[in-house]
Specification:
The complex is a heterodimer of chains A (106) and B (260). With 106 residues, chain A is mostly beta strands. Chain B is mostly helical. Classes of the chains: A mainly beta (106), B mainly alpha (260).
Chain lengths: 106, 260
């Protein structure tokens, strides 16, 4: 039941700097821990986050152990035109989630 | 003569230091844990797209509509839209259950509903699904003043909870009131000692990197004073929850809160 929370302004003026906020649900297991019997708990993290605007990649980050469970990633971008932001999170054990948000620019 | 007076004063001072003042916090001085947080953590709680607790609320909303159990019923089949039917409910919990003859908290109420009406297996304490449903239900009361404890049948249980709150226990021989009534304006190892008003449960604790219930918080505190923690669902924990909620009467529900 992974789910994402996205905060993108619904409208903006052309040329405005806008903030894009994303929160993804994920437990994070850093891969450094052991069970009581000494077995390594396998790593389970989100490894990559990408944002595309109208199909063009505008933001990408690689994630590593010990960033956070439920990573909150925000960045700024310039509003160039109306369109759709598409977000993608990829992680260990085949984790893959997407979300999208639209903006209308005058 | 003079020596005697010095001893008397010294005894008085010593007595004041060791006794639990048992002075309850005046109404005007009550503060939610929110008031003790840094600006950054406050911003996180206030913005629903930055508050990780909202992830559980969204999950809870999906679960609310999911049919399950032998009865093949969803919560929504009886209670309809939670925005109307669950408004103010969490502000009254723990509440007295007639069939059991004792108070039950919100998690227990959800599990009773599952067992009796959905004919489904109860959810485990602190499981994601139980926290999600509880958070979703409690969020419908956000901003509503807590009114737990109005029911006269609860009086003996509130009294028991209060007794537990004042009771010194564990290897450190501390009662809850030693910190949360007497020293809430001070700090413990760099962290603010709060007044223990459970206004935002279940809440997202940064230390836990997860949502957690009030029972989890109470068990952590009891372990902290090196006493044996009660099991999840124990009547003692529910009585403590009940006392704390009735003590916070009039303060607004914040669920899902964020705490450090």
């Amino acid at each position: 039941m992974a789910s994402a929370l996205i905060n993108v302004p619904k409208t903006a003026k052309r040329g405005d700097i806008i903030e894009v906020k994303t929160l993804m649900s994920h437990i994070m297991e850093p891969g450094y821990r052991h069970t009581a019997s000494g077995q390594m708990v396998p790593r389970d993290i989100i490894t990559s986050f990408t944002c595309r605007f109208n199909g063009t990649e505008i933001f990408r980050t690689d994630l590593f152990p010990a960033i956070a469970a439920n990573p909150f990633i925000t960045f700024f971008t310039r509003a160039t035109g109306s369109g759709k932001f598409e977000f993608e999170w990829i992680g260990d054990n085949g984790f893959s989630e997407t979300a999208s948000a639209s903006i209308s620019v005058e | 003569m003079r020596f005697g007076r010095v001893i008397a004063i010294a005894t008085l001072v010593a007595a004041d230091l060791v006794s639990v003042r048992a002075a309850e916090i005046p109404q005007a001085e009550r503060r939610s844990g929110y008031g003790f947080m840094t600006a950054d953590t406050k911003v996180m709680q206030d913005d629903d797209t930055a508050n990780p607790g909202m992830l559980w609320v969204l999950d809870g909303e999906a679960l609310w509509k999911r049919k399950l159990g032998a009865a093949d019923k969803a919560c929504a089949d009886c209670h309809n839209d939670a925005r109307a039917s669950m408004k103010g409910v969490a502000a009254r919990y723990p509440a007295f259950d007639k069939a059991l003859g004792r108070p039950v908290d919100l998690e227990q109420r959800i599990n009773l509903c599952r067992a009796n009406h959905q004919q489904a297996t109860p959810l485990a304490y602190e499981s994601r699904d139980l926290l999600a449903l509880t958070a979703f239900v409690a969020q419908q009361s956000r901003g509503i003043a807590i009114e737990t404890g109005g029911d006269p049948q609860l009086e003996p249980f509130i009294a028991k909870g209060r007794e537990l709150f004042m009771q010194r226990q564990g290897q450190l021989n501390l009662g809850c009131g030693n910190c949360h009534d007497d020293n809430w304006d001070k700090r413990l190892a760099g962290s603010a000692i709060t007044q223990a008003h459970p206004t935002g449960y279940p809440l997202y604790r940064l230390e836990w990197q997860s949502m957690g219930s009030l029972q989890r918080r109470l068990r952590a505190c009891i372990t902290g004073i090196r006493a044996q923690a009660y099991d999840y669902g124990a009547p003692e924990l529910v009585e403590l929850e009940l006392y704390l909620m009735s003590r916070a009467r009039g303060m607004p529900v914040e669920t899902p809160a964020v705490r450090p």
